[in-house]
Design brief:
The chain is of the alpha+beta class. The protein has helices at about 50-60, 75-80, 90-100; strands at about 15-25, 35-45, 65-75, 105-110.
Length: about 110
């Protein structure tokens, strides 16, 4: 078989999206005892933002969390175009999410009454 006829790997269409997910309480959700919920900032890979949201919500439900609302902030390129400053550690987490085709929770902020 010649090199010309061998299949070449297509470039991945996956991108990483920045999402903020608000979660309510569920038994065994791992949130602090007196918290009423939390906001999670995540980097999620997907071919589009809708897929990244679906995958993230599914993973959070498997972790006994109760997703209530999702806000999308776009890809790295979209955030840079919007004027966001992206720190190197944040870029590393985005790279990890892309390399692992995964969801990376970058920050969790519990809510208290």
């Amino acid at each position: 078989m010649s090199d010309d006829t061998e299949k070449t790997k297509k470039p991945s269409r996956q991108q990483v999206y920045t999402l903020v997910i608000e979660v309510g309480r569920n038994p065994n959700d791992g949130l602090p005892a007196k918290a009423t919920g939390a906001a999670l900032m995540v980097y999620a890979s997907g071919v589009d933002e809708a897929e990244a949201v679906r995958e993230t919500v599914a993973i959070l439900k498997q972790a006994d969390m109760a997703p209530l609302d999702v806000s999308g902030y776009g890809t790295l390129e979209e955030r840079l175009e919007a004027g966001d400053e992206i720190a190197e550690d944040e870029r590393e987490l985005m790279d990890r999410a892309l390399a692992e085709n995964s969801v990376v929770v970058a920050q969790m902020t519990p809510f208290f009454d």
